[in-house]
Design brief:
- By secondary structure, the chain is α+β, with helices and mostly antiparallel strands.
- The protein has helices at 2-20, 25-56, 124-152, 158-184, and strands at 63-65, 67-69, 72-86, 90-94, 99-103, 111-112, 117-121, 186-188, 193-198, 205-206, 211-216, 220-228, 240-245, 250-255, 258-259, 269-277, 288-305, 310-311, 317-322, 327-341, 346-351, 358-360, 372-375.
- The protein has a 15-stranded mixed beta sheet that branches. Strands 4-11-9-6 form a 4-stranded antiparallel beta sheet, with no helix packed on it.
- A hairpin with a 4-residue loop joins strand 13 (240-245) and strand 14 (250-255).
- Helix 3 runs antiparallel to helix 4 (158-184).
- The mean pLDDT is 86.
Length: 378
Amino acid sequence: MKKVTLVSFVSALIFMACSNGETQIDELKEQRDSLRTEMTELTKQLTKVESKIQALDSTKTLTQVTVQEVSLSNFEHYFEVFGSVEAPENTLLSAQTAGEILSIPVKEGQRVKKGQMLLNIDAKTIRKNIDEVDNSLSLAKDVFERQERLWDKNIGSELQYLEAKNNKQSLEKRLETLEAQLSMATVQAPFSGVVDQIMPNVGEMASPGMPLIRLVNLDNIYIKADVSERHLGTVTAGTKTIIEFSQLGLTIDTAITRTGNYINPGNRTFTARVDLENKDNRIKPNLMAKLKLRDLYRDSVVVVASDLIQQTPSGESFVYVASGKRGDVEVSKRVIEIGESNSKLETLVKAGLKAGEVVVDLGARSIKEGQQVTVVEK
């Protein structure tokens, strides 16, 4: 009824203004201010009436949401780098002497022990030289011993004694050299491992430096990765690490064994090494691996799902907090300070929330500050 009165009153004023010609500006301003005051009062009354209607209306429909209670939990953050598998005992054995290859008593893929013979090269010439030197040495020793006895009795010249001694020592050294050369004709395993590759065949001629056999021990391997220098303070020996071999479908929980002490000026990285046991030999040298290195760990902190966090136009992060866990409740916007987010889609909350508070989960993006909602079960 008041609205009709106001409209009629305004219409009358306009009509009078048109009829009378000019109306004083001060009078119009006064009437305008009066109308604004009445409109404000009417708006307040309308809001109160609507609130009472909503409270009494049994057919009302509120936005349905789900909620979750904030609790304290542990928070971990990892970053990823890639590394390559290396085997410390991965050796290509080469020939140290020339000669015909007489035998190869092992096969590719065979596991051998340290010191086991892998390949034999003909050394007949060396053996003949050893026999000759051995015979000459026997005579030289006999001559020296006689000259020594005579010299002890001051019989004979010193020159004869020294010549006999020198001859014996020269032959002994020559014999040592020949025996060393003979040992080179037999290729032995420097460590226990697996014969990975055999290059020559029996009957071929070997020459010094010629590659013969690749021997690999895969029981103990390690991974080397380059890590950015910005992680120098967080990645050290003992840092928790998760290694993933996607090619093998294999994941290993381990830790950094050691880190390098040198920053590569080319890419500003340092080296991280992880030692691994590989008893089944599934992991091969030069295989690529993904390393997840933990650079942050917090115990008993507030953590929320990352998708619950929204942002204001000014860039502030916020969540909606509910006043209860079930039924019709009111929600309010809560500005929070956030930290790191991890691969589990969790975000660390530094400030703004505490354990026990209830935040809106599903439906959080369709509500607003101060709104009444209905909390339902997930």
